[in-house]
Amino acid sequence: MVFPLVRNKMKKDGYTYHGIPKNLPEHVAIIMDGNGRWAKKRLLPRSAGHRAGVEALRNIIRMSSHIGVKYLTLYAFSTENWKRPKDEVNVLMNLLVEFLYNEIEELDKENVRITFMGEISRFPDKCVTAIEYALERTGGNTGLVVCIALNYGSRLEIQNAVKKIAELYKEDKISLDSINDELISSCLDTSHMPDPDLIIRTSGEQRLSNFMLYQASYSEFYFTDVHWPDFGNEAYARALNEFAARKRRYGDVK
Ligand code: IPE
Ligand code: IPE
Ligand code: MG
């Protein structure tokens, strides 16, 4: 179902946004898919798709910050993406480093806090250094929290959480009864954020691909055929409008 865009117009720092609804999701998570197909359609190499994807990412971070989304999680590299050709993995790593060094200044000015989730230690040193720089530089910021999922897989995250909890139990620090949702959530990579309200996946696939399996229990899903590099302000506004029209019942009968 297509919802007409609401007529709101929002201005911030020289940017104008149309059709932003009032009840925004507090936490938006995005599975940024379709860079390869975007490139293929244009007879370009996949790397060109990834580069165009970074532009979309810059724009969506800025818009999220301006319109007042509080948390934005971006799935950038999954634990399964290591299966890709080495060259493509290298392109993605280099784009990450470039993105962080190029954008930190402006993101910092915007009061954006950059965080990460996933097992960063498997990345080359240059990535780890860039990640540490981003964490340090924006750690004190109080605006939009951006969480970049890198070498992230929900099953790995859950395995790690189970290990942490087993360790706490073994050391007699917790009882069996204290293993509850709160404790489990605090052991996940997302412990610094609430669960996502809205999960967007671009480029037509309708699956989670190992993304936030635990946290998505009551998330709203939005799938669009738009490839990630083409996901601009209007496409984002459409997703937000559809979210605003959803009835979230959490098992109740309201
Ligand atoms: C998403 O685009 C980016 C990453 C997974 C890193 P893809 O590279 O998966 O693009 P498609 O799905 O092949 O079109
Ligand atoms: C999911 O996209 C991972 C990211 C967007 C980083 P994929 O392109 O890897 O997912 P599949 O292989 O189509 O499930
Ligand atoms: Mg893909």
Give a structural overview.
The chain is an alpha/beta fold and 254 residues long. It has a domain of 147 residues: Undecaprenyl pyrophosphate synthetase (3-Layer(aba) Sandwich). The protein has seven helices and eight strands, in the order βββααβαβαβααββα. The protein has a six-stranded parallel β-sheet with strand order 5-6-4-3-7-8, with helices on both faces. It is globular. The two termini are 22 Å apart. The model has no long low-confidence stretch (mean pLDDT 96). The structure holds 3-methylbut-3-enyl trihydrogen diphosphate (2 copies) and magnesium ion (MG). The site of one 3-methylbut-3-enyl trihydrogen diphosphate has 11 residues, from α1.
Short overview:
α1 packs across α2.
In terms of topology, how is this protein built?
Layout: E1 9-12, E2 15-18, E3 27-31, H1 35-41, H2 46-67, E4 71-78, H3 86-109, E5 113-117, H4 125-138, E6 145-152, H5 154-170, H6 181-186, E7 198-201, E8 220-223, H7 233-245
Parallel strand pairs: 3-4, 3-7, 4-6, 5-6, 7-8
Antiparallel strand pairs: 1-2
This protein binds 3-methylbut-3-enyl trihydrogen diphosphate (2 copies) and magnesium ion.
The site of one 3-methylbut-3-enyl trihydrogen diphosphate has 11 residues, from α1.
